[in-house]
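User: Structure please.
Assistant: Input sequence and predicted structure:
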Amino acid sequence: MSKYLDEEIAWRRKELHIVKAYIPTHSNSKQNAALRFNVPILYAHFEGFVKKSTELYLEYVAGKYLKHSQLQSQFVSLSLSKKIGLLEVKNIEDKTKIIEFILSEGESKSNILTKNVIQTKSNLKYNVFKEILFTIGIEEKKFSQFESLINDLVEARNYIAHGDYLKVDLATFETMYDDIQQIMLDLKTEIENAASLESFKKTITTP
């Protein structure tokens, strides 16, 4: 797990460093242009790393093939979602049948969906990022301080990608550049910790 995450973040950080080096230190038209093309690339690597790293973790958990009774609710939902989707819910009787079905599947091995589960929706705003973290059972609180930053990056990227003019301040970009990479590093650490501590397992409380 860590090996793949290391590789995934390393090439992205290297490319971001290379592209950032094209930004002139003095304020002029070249600096403005370089800042503008850096924003979409920074966003692309942020979105790409979030999607790839969380997919790797999801595949890691799926590969354990644990019983449903051993897993946190998110993973049980991903494992049973197809079967539940086939059941019609019209009244309390149907709802009861679904509950009975879920309970009966407790000791069966999981078959967690991994394809097309992580959706960045091409606009990885904080609410989407939060949803992805919930999907894989990662605590969102650590990242809440970056909500405005993430939303600002998405908005700036959309302006530029859609051909609108946006003047980007060097100091603002450098702060965004550092913070976005910190988010990526923090996410990597959280995923590694979750894998190591087996946070995907259901917590068993003793009476």
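The helical segments are 2-20, 29-62, 73-85, 92-104, 126-135, 147-161, 170-197.
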